[in-house]
Structures are given as structure tokens and as C-alpha cells.
Amino acid sequence: MRVAVRSTPTEPTHKHKAYDNLPCPVVVMENRWPSGLSTGWHSHPRAQLLYATEGVMVVHTEAGSWVVPPNRALWVATGLRHTVSMSGDVWMRTAYLDVDQVAQLPQASCAIHVSPLLRELLVAASQLSPHEPPEGRDARLLTLLIDEIRAAATRPLHLYLPMPQDLRLRAICEALVAQPSDATSVAQWAASIHVAERSLHRLFSQQTGMTFARWREQARLLHALRKIANGDKLIDIALDCGYASPSAFTAMFRRHFGCTPSSFYQ
Known about the structure:
2 domains; disordered N terminus; elongated; Jelly Rolls; alpha+beta; 21% strand; 8-stranded antiparallel beta sheet; single chain
């Protein structure tokens, strides 16, 4: 069995750099991304609120991974390295906030619910000039935007999916992310990289802090959340994740999240 490292297509962009160090404490940028592309790993000197009015974002950070549908946004803490992959064509609005100038904002990265008002504020703010000091209506709009971010309820969209540093293990993990239904056994994976099964378990625990079985389940859940957000049928999601029936998949999903797949984003 050959294990191949899967590369993620990326589109280099420097547009965000113009928004990183502006004097205004909050600025909003809009950007369109084609399906399948990625921002690549990067970080910002400001906190961010990532929101897509269209499409689904899959955000990987050094603290975990999130699937973000259009009724959610992701708060990314200042300086946190992250990469955003696009599931479907994505129309993104990104708010950049200087936490040294704006108080009472979230301290840690989290997913938040986007109310109709917050959605319209983000869309309207993205049309403002980031280089002009806001006055009058523009200033009031940005003040209300900050208030709505502070008031927004958080949502449990977070999954921890650490990638090992060992290139052999990383290749296995990337193969499982690419094909979550893969039922290859631990013994077969161990043989593919020429180590004993016991050694693979030990290395996996050392490098990811979880068992191989737990990591694979997390990878399947991350895949499932993206499919659910896209509106895919439950039976297709279950089969894509390697489960023989929707009921088996639902039982695993409920055990992890405490709710059914159909009710997760409600």
C-alpha cells in the first residue's frame, strides 16, 4: 500500500496586509474565493471575524479546526496561525479588529452565531473606505458592529485535529482526511510505513495526544460537519465517513456532540 501526501491548492494573496495596520480600530474587507482554494497558513497582528455570506469555510488553526457555514462566523484571536479552505465558492467578509483599541471582545478563538443584523452590518461595513477615518453614519455603523460582535452567542463548531510532525504519520493522516471512509486497519497502516503496529500506536499518541482511533473519528466528524453545512443527505454523509448506515453514524455523532446531525447547525 502506498501512502501519498495530499497537497492543498492555494491562492497567494496579499490583499489582507493592507488591512493589518490601519489606524481605524475596525475595518472590514470583502473577498471572493473559488471552491477548493485555500488562503495558506498565515497570521495577523489584529483579531479577525471571518464570515461568508455564501459558501462554507473550513478553518484549520494550531488550536483546532472549525467548519463555518453561512449562519456562523469565526472569531480568530490575534496572532493565531490559520488557513481557510473553501467548500463551494465563498464570498467572505473579514472584520479586522485592534483589541488594544476595542475592549470586551472575545479572548479566545470561537464560532459565533450571525444574526440578520450582524450579517447586514458586516456587508455594509465592507463597503466603507478602510483608509478614511469614519465619521457620522459610518462611525455609528462600526460602533454598532462592535456591539453586535460582543453580544453574539458562541456556538460549538470546534474540533481538535492535530497533525503529527512525523512525515510518515502525517502522510497517513492526510490520506484519511482525503478519504474518510478508508477502512484500512492500524496493522495495515503500520505495515505500509514499515513499523510495528505497537510502534504506530505509540508514535501516534506521542505526536497527537490521542489514539489513532480517536483521531480518525475526529477526521470523519470534521468531514461530516462540512457535508452537513453543504446540505448533503445524511445517508451520503454516513457512507462518505465509512459508516454502514445513517443510524450508526448518527449514534457516533450524538455521542460526540450530544445532538443529531440534522439539529447541529440549528
